[in-house]
Design brief:
Chain A is mostly helical. In chain A, 81% of the residues lie in helices and 0% in strands. Chain B has eleven helices and 14 strands. In chain B, strand 9 and strand 10 form a beta hairpin. Classes of the chains: A mainly alpha, B alpha/beta. At the A-B interface, helix 6 and helix 7 of A face helix 2, strand 6 and helix 3 of B.
Amino acid sequence: MVFGIDFSEVNWSEVSQASLDTLNMLGFSVLFTFIIGLPLGVLLFLSGKSSHWAVKVMYSLLSLIVNVLRSVPFVILMIAILPFTKVLIGTTIGVKGAIPALVIAAAPFFARLVETSLREVDRGVIEAAQAMGASTWQIVRKVLLPEAMPGLIAGTTITAVTLISYTAMSGLVGGGGLGDLAIRYGYQRYETSVMIIAIAVMIVMVQILQWIGDRFVRRYTRK
Amino acid sequence: MSQVLIEIKQLSKRYPAQGKSSAGMLALEHIDLHVPAGEVFGIIGHSGAGKSTLLRSINLLERPTSGSVLIDGVEMTELSNKELQKQRSKIGMIFQHFNLLSSATVFDNIAFPLRLHKTPADKVKAKVNELMRLVGLEEHRDKYPAQLSGGQKQRVGIARALANDPKVLLCDEATSALDPQTTNSILELLLQINRNLGITIVLITHEMHVIQSICDRVGVIHGGKIVEQGPVVDVFLKPQHPVTKEFILEESHHEELQPWTSFKTQAGDSSRVVKINYLGDVTYQPVLHRVLSEAGIEFAILQGTISRMKDTPYGQLVVRLDGEATTLQAALEALVKLGLDVEVIA
């Protein structure tokens, strides 16, 4: 008994399995969020600068989609796209079933963070690269991304931390992982001890992620 | 020397109107300029005069509304994007705020333009090492820009601009963010590059001092127009446009100098106030003393400067000459014969 809570009833192998599931969901969703969100953010940045009318229309459209996806609460989005998830993955439950919703929610968010970090890059450096004959693609790859690196890493960290809380919510619709565990034991069976442990593990995960992220930001900061 | 490298004809730039205001802003108006190969050409103007737009029109960072920009026989305004990128690599450019990659070392910053064009690694290394030696930064190879002083950053900028062996170097207020001493060392480096590598330099500045130290010719820009241009010595000693005069007065510590016209009161029945310009070797010869003492004329120096413009010594004196009108006239003619430029103020 610790603080009046009995930890002896906790099934530790279930806790570790749930932790692994959460890490799995987190890993894959961060990966796909990055793969989709980074180009989307670059596209938002590039199209936002243009004065060409067709590009301006594209920017407004992209921006609208991103804002719509960001304004839908995750719990609702997750349920709303269940049919889509079914078509894409073949199932809507478990670790695999949770990932599409996580990515669709996090990618637009990450794209905005990318766009913001790219805007912080000194305009003069971009101009210098243009003056040296760099193409737009070269400017993105060799100027924008390296110069914005600390911001991009910080954005990835924020997104990953947000995704940890999203994975917990996906427990509501059978997503598996620590959130699922906490809901099943803590909410449905009144076994507070399991819920507390699930929360503690998630807090540790967030702390570690933030610590790693901060270390990388410091390592890539040259100013 | 005489081959024209940069030729700008009837160049105009109008910025589109913002919102409902009708016409937009005319930043450049019918600019005609030509710069021969090997020259250092300076453009001087106040902020907002259009000098920055003009410089950026040369490598088309600013696309002119109308007119032509010919560089080494290539019409820049008609190039496709791809061709333009290729031409730009032959035009170096340095900036007031250096614009270095903060995430890259000195070596990688200088290597940047070489790597853009897929230069093999061993050639990149050889070229960057050579450039670091040229600008004197060998021992700072692995430092990041944040660890360098302003002057060192500009040296990196210069080395980077020279990496692709350009024919032209554009300097955008390259010394305006530097202290006077560093300014001089950077100007010296630019002059050395111009002489030893034969690179044509076009620079913009708001400081007459910069023009005077390294330029061969100068254009004065005001309200989007070139109001005066010519060899620096001519423009400096005989400025025509009020803006030019203003720049020269600023340079020569106007708190000490009075306008020449204020000496008019010194003139009388048997005395004249005269402005004398010396140019070249004659500056250091005692011509004034010799001519005037032979004619038996006494003189008092009211104001004067002796200095150099790039390599040309020059002097400018305002003197009061006391003597008979006829002897005065004869003496003035003798001075003109000796190569001085004489102007009677009163």
